[in-house]
Design goal:
The protein has 346 residues and is α+β, with helices and mostly antiparallel strands. It has 12 helices and 9 strands. The chain folds into 2 domains: 5-98, Phosphorylase Kinase, domain 1 (2-Layer Sandwich); 110-345, Aminoglycoside phosphotransferase (APH), C-terminal lobe (Aminoglycoside 3'-phosphotransferase, Chain: A, domain 2, Alpha-Beta Complex), CATH 3.90.1200.10. The chain has helices at 10-14, 54-69, 110-127, 145-164, 171-193, 197-209, 244-258, 263-276, 281-292, 295-306, 314-335, 338-345, and strands at residues 21-30, 33-40, 43-50, 87-89, 92-98, 212-213, 222-224, 230-232, 239-240. The strands form 3 sheets. It has a 5-stranded antiparallel β-sheet with strand order 1-2-3-5-4. The longest helix is centred in the middle third of the chain and has 23 residues, at 171-193.
Length: 346
């Protein structure tokens, strides 16, 4: 019988499929979720223990099916002998998907970055019209930006005030006290901007017409297949939201990798996206609002005070803080040119 870490019922799960298993190897495991490579008589597969509830898995599988029907390449979810899309054992759900060959794109290679950006735009366009299955648990960030950002601002202000009340400050704390006011001003500017008609109009548009965000449309989740196809991986975090969410996250990853924001690169990325999935001037204005919000700075500040990275040293936290501050400050300079950049390709 095939068993693995924590005595997972892998044999029971895999017996539900019309394949003979030749071998199995664990890729990762974290209590509620796991990933295994499974060599079968029908090729290599990937078995995933899903971290979400069954009702949310139904939502995610429907979203994947919708995207695939619209031409987006996502690894095929294998059906069981009973034509089911997943196997439930106890309270855990497992899915078996085809393994796909390919390489991750390189942000520093313009042609590969362009492929990634254009595929993200096609993904967003293909997501239009998606309607979640009745009774499924829907993951939704749409319309929540104001409340989510406001809640985060409250948490960070409390952390800042607690640091300020200390009689002795670490080097990390000293820097926080120095820079937090300027970043807080940017957060509050974003809140003000999100109160505009442009934001609410886009929320309504997606609410009526449908729309999905991947939430981590990054190089590590994209495979450039030798056939020329672009495969999108790790769809476990799909959510209903505006494309701006994915655009902002990708831009932050690319520019962080470069160590500084580059106006020419920003122009390239946004123009590639616009050519595949045209946004209005008001929608691009909402993208800017989200970019202005200092997500990278906020992330490292929250990680430090909540000690979310248990194995990080004080020096590593400090190094990351300085890195994120530099990137965020360079972004502010580039965003001063944002309207001119948008006007060049619209």
């Amino acid at each position: 019988m095939i068993r693995c870490l924590n005595d997972e019922p892998l044999s029971e799960v895999l017996n539900k499929y019309p394949y003979t298993v030749k071998g199995i190897r664990m890729e990762s495991y974290k209590k509620k979720k796991g990933v295994w490579w499974v060599d079968t008589t029908k090729g290599m597969k990937v078995l995933k223990k899903h971290p979400n509830s069954e009702s949310m898995l139904v939502f995610l599988l429907a979203a994947v099916s919708h995207l695939q029907d619209k031409g987006i390449h996502i690894p095929t979810v294998n059906k069981t002998s009973d034509d089911a899309s997943y196997v439930k054992v106890g309270e855990s759900c497992f899915i078996l998907i085809d393994a796909v060959d390919g390489v991750n794109p390189n942000y520093r290679k313009p042609e590969e970055l362009e492929t990634l950006v254009r595929e993200m735009a096609r993904f967003h366009q293909a997501s239009e019209g998606f309607v979640p299955p009745e009774g499924s648990k829907v993951r939704r960030h749409l319309g929540h930006w104001l409340s989510d950002d406001s809640d985060e601002i409250g948490r960070l202000k409390a952390l800042h005030d607690e640091e300020q009340s200390k009689t002795k400050h670490s080097e990390f704390g000293k820097i926080i006290l120095e820079v937090f006011p300027s970043f807080l001003a940017r957060m509050e500017d974003t809140i003000c901007g999100l109160s505009s008609p442009a934001y609410f109009a886009w929320v309504k548009k997606v609410a009526v017409g449908g729309g999905l965000c991947h939430q981590d449309f990054a190089a590590g989740n994209i495979l450039l297949n030798p056939s020329g196809k672009v495969y999108i991986l790790d769809t476990d975090s799909l959510t209903i939201d505006m494309p701006a969410r994915d655009i902002r996250k990708l831009l932050n990853k690319v520019m962080k990798k470069n160590g500084i924001w580059d106006s020419s690169l920003l122009h390239q990325i946004l123009s590639w996206y616009q050519q595949e999935n045209s946004l209005t001037a008001d929608e691009w204005a909402v993208v800017k609002m989200d970019l202005n919000y200092p997500h990278l700075f906020n992330g490292i500040m929250d990680k430090y005070y909540r000690r979310r990275e248990k194995d990080w040293t004080e020096e590593k936290y400090l190094s990351r803080l300085k890195e994120m501050i530099a990137v965020e400050q360079s972004k502010k300079i580039v965003l001063d040119q944002y309207e001119a950049i948008i006007n060049e390709f619209r």
